[in-house]
């Protein structure tokens, strides 16, 4: 709140002065870290891009063209998780303002997006009697969820809920493997990558074809991407046949190798201790090779090789001996690749992608545990993304405080760190998507007209 | 179809250029004796295919085997009758095999396999005509299109260990229409289209064939139970019922000769009389206090066939599982399916224990312990398991030799012979048969020493 605003008494006292800690009055703009209903109220009041979410979810059905499906947005399920863990499913809205008002009023701690159903979810009970599956999902974005905890067995810098720049590389790799495949192999164009707010990323594929995929088809795409099939019983969790790799795996391997050798080896110190290198030796099914390597490394404990080089060096030794073809034992054919895949290939949550009715957190929500915003990530510049620098709710509120007098209340987000993200969301995702949707609506409308014209023959 | 008495000559129909699809029973006349003979000839073909599969033969070998079987059994002195025999025998067997779920499953599986192998032998035009019949109007990729994706096609072919033929035909299909191929990374995909090889298209056609036949069998069953069986009780029905039982052997759903067993006996008879597949499952269950679904089915139904009563089965599984998941969870999540296996829940089917053929063709995945050890274990693990059974080194070598030649049931038979010190001429083709034969041997040994 600026001096002018206080003197003029024009601004609504939306940020309660009592929120500021005692003794921080001098820093009028500072907002202590936290996540609570009051903060959220401001966020939903001034920053959350309601209109953009509405436009996205309408997929061009804004009523401005005769070919629009006016019921489309109203058949989409949203779910709200409220303050005291109360969970409201099957929320639906007919207009942008209904959506906005409900969010502002209920102040959900989390907003999830579900499928578009055959009828308005609010009316589902009316049709329950017919028992013919009248209430059923008809469209849903194809989604992927990649979570850092699925990699706990291959990252040493953090574990559990923690995330740092070192292990974030794994997410960068995931985007660099999956995104090109979605575009080049599957032919999808409208793809949105989002930071999940704590330790992972989500991917939303929004092409019409993607939205209409059946569960079986979604499952097949998820399986296409699956390589890691581990559990505690299996020694080798990645098993590639010893003949050549499928072109998708070949392409991916180039990315994996680059990051494994250029980044993960050192950042995760994969060979620096006995415990760690044993894990890799376990993946080599040849006793003579593993004992040879073990012998060398145990001796080298006291050598003068600096800590940085030990990982790169030892990996070089592993590659050399495995590719030398000296021991023609079975199962060595793709051993080097298997190790690289194990440590770096994306690990998707299969269940999330397989079911049309899966609910996934909406972009631009705030993560309750970290306070960070679920921001879009530019896949073309994903190496630059830093999860530890993502603005938090309290930081955004601070930025509003320092924002100065603005006559344009609608664009308050533009004066905060959120501005860049919303503009990116619009220009790289929403606008191309809407343009394409409108073309589709127009084309199918014209096609219908043509058809009815030609069938009107006397 | 009209069944006529002996001496009349059958009616000629036009020879069909492609494989019959058996969409509907054609208006043919059949002599009563041909009714039975044709069916038996076809059954020999199907049984031969089943046999080949249980020996783990690969696709190429099976194709050739199916061709031999067909040529050997489905000939007819009158060339124009060959197609009739094909169609008639199929429809007769539908009557025979529509009557229970297990029979339908077996027939469906073998007929689909037969169809697939025959399709692979057809010329390209015939294959395309069949694709059109099944509403699979796939377009063959043009030469130019293939050139642009040649590198990818080559890599995919190499991933199966096969070279890419210079004149190979590929069909350009929207990827969402071939989910199985996409999931298995068995096709090259580019900009939303999958490039499907000819033999893969054959699989797709076969899948359609299977789905049509599956529905048809259900309808046939209804007609059989509602009208045909009664109508034909003096003529066709006895033939139909006899055709089936002579070929499938006992199904062990009602344990007859074997005395009922109780839980306290299980460990001991497990060591002495269980075949390796069930020993393994049993040991894993004791070790982990858990088995995944495939294992629970295979072992559970086997125990039922061995004579374990429902109450004892529930107590047995509960004793193990509750050590891992607690007794409440057992009651909530597992007890129902055990009762289901005994025909006390749901549609009350009394499920039959799995035969060797079924077990061999199952596909255990990560964390599974079912399947046939002779097929699914690595050489190392199999040797270790046989060693634990106390089999001499020489016998183990004989067994491993059979395994290498993919004669899994013969391997199990040799194991039986080594363990019991007797010969087993009939060969093992059902785990419950192994068990009952074993018990017989042990009992006769006991009697002779008394």
UniProtKB/TrEMBL annotation, chain A:
Q: Which CDD domains match?
A: AE_Prim_S
Is this entry keyworded Transcription? yes
**Catalytic activity, EC:** 2.7.7.-
Q: Name one Pfam family in it.
A: DNA_primase_S
The UniProt keywords, alphabetically, are:
DNA replication, DNA-directed RNA polymerase, Metal-binding, Nucleotidyltransferase, Primosome, Transcription, Transferase, Zinc
Question: What EC class is this?
Answer: transferase
Q: Write down the required cofactor(s).
A: Mn(2+); Mg(2+)
Annotated family = Belongs to the eukaryotic-type primase small subunit family.
For this entry, the protein name equals DNA primase
Instruction: List the source organism.
Output: Lithocarpus litseifolius
From TrEMBL, chain B:
Q: Name one GO cellular component term.
A: alpha DNA polymerase:primase complex
Assigned keywords, A-Z: 4Fe-4S, DNA replication, DNA-binding, Iron, Iron-sulfur, Metal-binding, Primosome
UniProt KW DNA-binding keyword: yes
- Positions binding [4Fe-4S] cluster in this chain are 277, 356, 372, 412
Where would I find the DNA primase large subunit C-terminal domain in this sequence? 268-435
| Superkingdom of source | Eukaryota
Q: Which GO terms describe its molecular function?
A: 4 iron, 4 sulfur cluster binding; DNA binding; metal ion binding
Q: Would the keyword Lipid biosynthesis turn up in this protein's UniProt record? A: no
Q: Which cofactor does it need?
A: [4Fe-4S] cluster
Please, one GO biological process term? DNA replication, synthesis of primer
Q: Which family does it belong to?
A: Belongs to the eukaryotic-type primase large subunit family.
What is this protein identified as?
DNA primase large subunit C-terminal domain-containing protein
Q: Whose protein is this, by species?
A: Lithocarpus litseifolius
Q: What is the lineage of its organism?
A: Eukaryota, Viridiplantae, Streptophyta, Embryophyta, Tracheophyta
């Amino acid at each position: 709140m600026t001096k002018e605003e206080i003197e003029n008494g024009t601004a609504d006292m939306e940020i309660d002065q009592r929120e500021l800690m005692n003794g921080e009055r001098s820093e009028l703009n500072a907002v202590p870290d936290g996540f609570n209903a009051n903060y959220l109220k401001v966020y939903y009041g001034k920053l959350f891009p309601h209109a953009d979410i509405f436009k996205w979810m309408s997929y061009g059905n804004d009523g401005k063209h005769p070919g629009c499906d006016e019921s489309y947005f109203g058949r989409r399920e949203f779910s709200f998780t409220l303050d005291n863990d109360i969970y409201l499913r099957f929320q639906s809205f007919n207009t942008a303002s209904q959506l906005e008002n409900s969010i502002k009023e209920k102040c959900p701690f989390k907003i999830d997006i579900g499928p578009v159903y055959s009828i308005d979810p609010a009316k589902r009970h009316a049709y329950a009697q017919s028992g013919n599956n009248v209430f059923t999902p008809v469209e849903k974005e194809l989604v992927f969820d990649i979570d850092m905890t699925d990699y706990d067995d291959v990252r040493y810098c953090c574990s559990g809920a923690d995330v740092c720049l070192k292990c974030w590389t794994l997410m960068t790799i995931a985007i660099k493997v999956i995104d090109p495949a979605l575009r080049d192999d599957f032919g999808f164009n409208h793809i949105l990558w989002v930071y999940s707010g704590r330790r992972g990323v989500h991917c939303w594929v929004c092409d019409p074809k993607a939205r209409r995929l059946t569960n079986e088809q979604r499952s097949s795409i998820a399986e296409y991407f699956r390589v890691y099939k581990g559990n505690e019983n299996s020694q080798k969790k990645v098993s590639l046949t010893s003949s050549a790799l499928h072109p998708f795996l070949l392409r991916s391997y180039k990315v994996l190798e680059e990051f494994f050798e250029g980044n993960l080896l050192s950042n995760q110190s994969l060979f620096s201790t006995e415990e760690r290198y044993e894990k890799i030796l376990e993946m080599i099914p040849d006793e003579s090779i593993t004992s040879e390597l073990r012998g060398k490394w145990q001796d080298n404990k006291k050598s003068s090789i600096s800590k940085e080089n030990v990982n790169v060096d030892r990996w070089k030794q592993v590659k050399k001996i495995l590719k030398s073809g000296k021991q023609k034992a079975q199962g060595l054919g793709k051993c080097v690749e298997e190790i690289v895949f194990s440590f770096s290939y994306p690990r998707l949550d299969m269940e999330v992608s397989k079911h049309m009715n899966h609910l996934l957190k909406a972009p631009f929500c705030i993560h309750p545990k970290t306070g960070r915003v679920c921001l879009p990530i530019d896949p073309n510049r994903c190496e630059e993304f830093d999860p530890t620098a993502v603005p938090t709710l309290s930081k955004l509120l601070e930025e509003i405080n320092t924002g100065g007098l603005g006559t344009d209340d609608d664009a308050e987000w533009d004066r905060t760190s959120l501005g860049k993200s919303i503009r990116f969301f619009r220009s790289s995702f929403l606008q191309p998507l809407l343009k394409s949707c409108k073309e589709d609506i127009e084309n199918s409308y014209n096609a219908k007209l043509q058809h009815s014209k030609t069938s009107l023959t006397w | 179809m009209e069944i006529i008495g002996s001496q009349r000559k059958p009616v000629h129909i036009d020879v069909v250029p492609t494989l019959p699809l058996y969409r509907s029973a054609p208006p043919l006349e059949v002599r009563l004796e041909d009714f039975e003979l044709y069916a038996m000839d076809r059954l020999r073909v199907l049984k031969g295919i089943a046999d080949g599969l249980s020996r783990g033969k690969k696709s190429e070998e099976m194709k050739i085997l199916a061709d031999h079987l067909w040529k050997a059994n489905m000939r007819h002195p009158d060339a124009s009758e060959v197609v009739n025999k094909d169609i008639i025998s199929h429809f007769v067997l539908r009557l025979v095999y529509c009557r229970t779920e297990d029979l339908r499953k077996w027939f469906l599986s073998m007929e689909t396999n037969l169809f697939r192998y025959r399709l692979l032998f057809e010329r390209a035009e015939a294959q395309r005509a069949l694709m059109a019949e099944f509403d699979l109007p796939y377009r063959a990729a043009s030469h130019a299109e293939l050139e642009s994706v040649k590198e990818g096609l080559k890599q995919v072919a190499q991933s199966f260990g096969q070279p890419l033929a210079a004149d190979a035909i590929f069909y350009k299909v929207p990827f969402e229409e071939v989910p199985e191929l996409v999931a298995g990374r068995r096709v090259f995909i580019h900009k939303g289209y999958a490039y499907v090889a000819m033999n893969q298209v054959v699989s797709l056609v076969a899948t359609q064939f299977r789905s049509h036949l599956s529905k048809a069998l259900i309808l046939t069953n209804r007609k059989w139970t509602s009208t045909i069986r009664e109508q034909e009780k003096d003529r066709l029905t006895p033939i139909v019922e006899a055709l089936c039982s002579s070929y499938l052997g006992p199904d062990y759903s009602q344990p007859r000769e074997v005395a009922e067993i109780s839980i306290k006996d299980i460990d001991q008879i497990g060591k002495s009389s269980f075949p390796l597949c069930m020993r393994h499952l049993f040991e894993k269950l004791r070790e982990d206090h858990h088995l995944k679904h495939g294992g629970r089915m295979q072992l559970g139904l086997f125990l039922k066939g061995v004579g374990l009563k429902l109450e004892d089965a529930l107590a047995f599984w509960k004793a193990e599982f509750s050590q891992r998941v607690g007794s409440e969870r057992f009651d909530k999540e597992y007890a129902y399916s055990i009762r289901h296996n005994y025909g006390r829940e749901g549609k009350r089917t009394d499920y039959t224990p799995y035969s060797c053929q079924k077990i061999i063709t199952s596909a255990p995945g990560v964390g599974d312990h079912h399947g046939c050890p002779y097929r699914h274990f690595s050489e190392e693990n199999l040797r270790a398991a046989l060693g634990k059974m106390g089999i001499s080194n020489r016998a183990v070598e004989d067994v491993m030799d059979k395994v290498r030649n993919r004669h899994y049931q013969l391997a199990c038979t040799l194991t039986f012979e080594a363990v019991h010190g007797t010969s087993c001429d009939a060969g093992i083709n059902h785990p419950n048969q192994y068990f009952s034969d074993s018990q017989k041997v042990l009992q006769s040994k006991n009697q002779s020493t008394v």
